[in-house]
Write a structure and sequence with these properties.
By secondary structure, the chain is an alpha+beta fold. It has a single domain, classed as TATA-Binding Protein (2-Layer Sandwich). It contains six helices and five strands; from the N terminus they run αβαβαβαββαα. It has a five-stranded antiparallel sheet. The radius of gyration is 15 Å and the shape is globular. 25% of the residues are buried. The mean pLDDT is 95.
């Protein structure tokens, strides 16, 4: 398995904070729930470690979450969906896990439904670029 099999990655010309705000606005415009935003650089700095910018944005669609959990509650290990904004070698990237990978581990998840979620995640990322 390669990274492209489970992660959708795009590069943006936006500054880091602009990209984060773009993702948040796009998530809101879709009616999805924002659970939390983790500032990994800040949290590790408190412990004395240096990292480039990295924010993990947790999002959820109640419709899909409910359906997936009804199939197998252990799917909660893969929830909520995450979109990360990171800086790497001076470039800002927006990254999301491809939900279709879940259907490979949990047969209760219909591939078509996972594809619907993946399409939305990709649209959020692309529109945030």
């Amino acid at each position: 398995m390669e990274i492209k099999d489970f992660a959708y990655i795009i590069e943006t010309e936006k500054k880091f904070d602009e990209a984060v705000v773009s993702v948040l606005k796009e998530v809101e415009s879709r009616g999805w729930t924002l659970f939390n935003v983790y500032d990994i650089k800040e949290r590790l700095a408190v412990k004395g470690f240096e990292q480039e910018q990295l924010k993990i944005i947790e999002i959820c669609s109640g419709k899909y979450a409910n359906s997936f959990l009804n199939g197998n509650r252990l799917i909660s290990l893969c929830m909520p969906c995450k979109i990360n904004v990171l800086e790497e070698n001076g470039k800002v990237k927006i990254v999301g896990m491809k939900p279709t990978i879940i259907s490979e581990f949990f047969k209760e998840v219909k591939k078509e439904e996972a594809e619907e979620v993946e399409k939305i995640i990709k649209e959020i990322i692309n529109n945030s670029k």
